[in-house]
Design brief:
131 residues; alpha+beta; Immunoglobulin-like; 4-stranded antiparallel beta sheet; 7 strands; 20% helix; elongated
Length: 131
């Protein structure tokens, strides 16, 4: 029993310092923000599966995601700063938007993609014996 008390007393300061540092971290300011949004077509219908990329100011791709079943996307825990948001889907025109977030800020961006013009090409070749 005396050994347990000696060990218990020596561990008490360690246990207290761990719990104090946990509380200190929980109260520490968060210097990140988030970008959330929705991607839809010109009629307002969600473009499920559309791709959304987040680029830095120097055009380096930082993250990418896919629009979920509700038509939404999210980029969480981003350092405060300026970014370029790009959404695209086959058959639609690509949309890009410059965004700036501050620490502890969550911004919501609605991105609307227009249908791309269909381009067809027809090649006519002369039949044998013609031309």
């Amino acid at each position: 029993m005396p050994i347990f008390r000696a060990v218990g007393r020596s561990l008490l300061p360690l246990a207290l310092s761990c719990s104090v540092s946990t509380f200190a971290r929980a109260d520490a300011p968060d210097h990140t923000g988030a970008i959330k949004g929705k991607v839809s077509d010109s009629s307002g219908a969600a473009l499920i599966g559309a791709r959304v990329a987040l680029l830095t100011e120097s055009n380096t791709e930082l993250r990418r995601t896919v629009v979920d079943a509700s038509g939404e996307f999210a980029f969480e825990s981003l350092p405060a700063g300026s970014y370029l948001l790009i959404a695209n889907e086959p058959g639609f025109l690509r949309v890009s938007r410059a965004v700036r977030i501050l620490a502890n800020q969550v911004i919501f961006e609605e991105l609307q993609l227009d249908v791309a013009a269909l381009q067809e090409s027809v090649t006519i070749t002369p039949a044998r014996g013609e031309a």
